[in-house]
Description:
The protein is an alpha/beta fold.
Amino acid sequence: MQVDKEAYAIIFGVKKFFQYLYGRRFTLLTDNQAISKIFGEHKGLPVMSALRMQHYATYLQSFNYEIRFRKSANHANADAMSRFPLDISDPENEIEESDAVELSQIDTLPLTAAELGQVTAEDHTVQKLIQGIKHGHSVEAKDRFGVEQHEFSLQKGCLLRGIRVYVPAPLQKRVLEELHSTHFGTTRTKSLARGYCWWPGLDRDIEDMVANCADCQSVRAEPAKMNLHCWETPTAPFQRVHVDFDGPYLDTYFFIYVDAYSKSRSKYAGPSRPKVPSICIARSSASLAFRQSW
Ligand SMILES: [Zn+2]
């Protein structure tokens, strides 16, 4: 979450000194290289799933600034304050503002952060990814579900993709039930899920759940009723014929047509589907039958 915190520090500083900065050119110095790239002047909006970073970038776009990277060793004027020991008895319970958003995301779920963290720690499918995030090295695509690694972060042992909390398999059913407690249909349940949680195959799980929910199915909108259309009665032979292929039956294909007026039937039978277009067969048979009927 280091990047988030660094980004928030910049936003905090810019807000704090808004009246001195707005409308003037200024320089932002950061000792975080990633941040200096993400918020670089001509970068446009960062393509990240973390909505918060996009909000930060959008906010910064209204300022005229240049951003420069400065090594931590030379950044002592700003870092000095953060390195003074603080008189906090339980630093674990001090929540940074940038973390508060993510913790509140976890709180919305029908799980506690502790429970989620514990089950996540036992979930072998994400261990390589978690180690990668902790130690800042990249992991193979298969170990991060084919999703860009920078989209993931860790918060109190819980894995997040953007602001969506990763839910390990043993807890997914409970989250699904919560998502569907008001029996929204598939689309609304999915959009609700997109705001809070994520796991591979989540959309499919929601579709299955709604499809198998008796309550939802009983109130599902029936397709609109169509009026049955009856063919008009023809007034002469071969005004209209009905044709179709049939087969193979005993290795034989049939091309069948019925004259709607006389109900006389004809068929072509062959070892394969006729090569001649059906319209030609129908026309030649029809003209023959027509001549015979006169
Ligand atoms: Zn339902």
